[in-house]
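Researcher: Good morning. I'm working through a list of sequences from a screen, and I'd like to move beyond sequence-only analysis. For each chain I'm collecting a predicted structure so we can compare shapes side by side. This is the next one on the list. No need for commentary yet; just the structure.
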Amino acid sequence: MGMDSAYLTNNFLIAMPAMQDPNFDHTVTFICQHNEEGALGIVINRVVNLTVGDILDQMSIAREGYQKSRLPVHYGGPVQNDRGFILHQNVGNWDSTLPITDSIGLTTSRDILEAMANNEGPERYVMALGYAGWGSGQLEHEIKENAWLNGPADYNIIFENPIESRWSSAASLLGVDVNTLSSEAGHA
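Model: Good morning. Structure tokens for this chain:
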């Protein structure tokens, strides 16, 4: 076990039914970075009322012929939710990317959007506004308080699953049936 074995980079955080914070009710968050300074994640199962095409338009990026303009934009979390974040597989070589693993990255630079609009961007991506952030030790504390389930991420859930099934799919990866969880909420 390495020094960083307690850190949850590349894991899913699955909100338990008892989650009090409405920002995270029934959410799955993919943890992009977690270290002694805190954690950063992107919520992957909640959308805002915008499409990828809307964002490209707002940034004056031409998108004639772009096939995925109708994809929804995700609510990435409550922090900086006027900023766009692209969670994508393969990492690629963009101006401003946080590499999460060898195969997945989080990019905030305009160049990836321009490439996407030219059908030259990453094959699989989620576009989000905002992110979820935790200060030093905060996420560890919340997990001890049973606010979250956590386990290794499955990229098919991020990029392929229907948005409305991602919470239950992520939980079932850990052998948890969310339906039994929800019905027992409040009977402690």
